[in-house]
Amino acid sequence: MKKRILAVALTAAMVASTGVVSVPVMAADEPYKAALLINGTLGDKSFFDSANIGLTALQDELGEDKFTFKVEQMGATSADEAKWEPTVYDYCDDGSYDVIIVGTFQMLDALTNASADYPDQKFIYFDEAFDYSNGGENVYNVMYKQNEVSYLVGAAAAMMTTDESLDKIDPSNKIIGFLGGMENSVINDFLVGYIQGAKDIDEEIQVALAYVGNFYDSAAGKDMALTQYQNGADVGYNVAGSAGLGQIEAAADAGRYAFGVDSDQASLLPDYAEFIPTSALKNVGNSLMRAIKLDMEDSLEYGKLEYLGFAEGGVELVEDAHYEEVVPEAIRTKVAELKEQITNGEVTVPTALGDNAMSQDDIKALIESVQVK
Question: Phi, psi (5° rounding) for residue 156?
């Protein structure tokens, strides 16, 4: 690791949507340098793009004399997996990066090994829990309360599916859809929040559930989503990275709705915007901005896991003019009430993560309670 001399204090406010307070940032004799290693590619209009956008915004804000970063796109297919860990080691060997950033459960083994072999290299790990039982003092871990924002999506979907004022809705049934990339704890956290939000609106709601098996095959995602729409679902929720883009295409083909995820997909995909009521944001980019700013002033707590939800600006529902145009006012009003209740602690959303995680039996029972009959 290069040695850096911290000097003049700068004040740098976080992106307004995060709700995170300003963090003082220190200038240095040379720029702080980060590497973002993506086990996928940019252009997913979702998760990885959010990370890249956040780092780009930080570079624009601070200037390249204070902060620079490099993105390494390692690919997401099974053929690409063999190069993920060697790539992490290559960046560690380079020794010029103040921090190396990786994310998702698929990078856990590579990070565990690299962080142990390079104890002087700092890492930021997002969207999966790191096991600190055997070390990891050089790893900062951030996760998101996607169950909270998914609860709002589920509530909105349950209200929309019987709303006769919406032209893409068949109000004669109560079926909504969920498309996951792979079944794991993070995707289950989305799912349990979504189901509970829908059930709290209508106990008779049914949820058509499918997993693509990966996060990159949009053609398979489209086929699965089309099946859901053909079987009665008129509102879906894609939580599948690039594969989830297939559900948005399916919604357009079927004349139905698909909630976006991770990035503002209605804005990023304007040709499909009328089919995307709004998007559930996991503010990956903003969380990385926050972490790096803290690290630049030597205030980031390594060896620690943080969960960021509505209260911390870690998740968000896009509530813009497009949302107001597509989603009826009565539904938006109810969603706003639920968001306030979650934020102030009146509503506790079930989770598949952390110390308060539901058991696997309870998750299974929740899923079975909404199976399409």
Answer: -65, -45
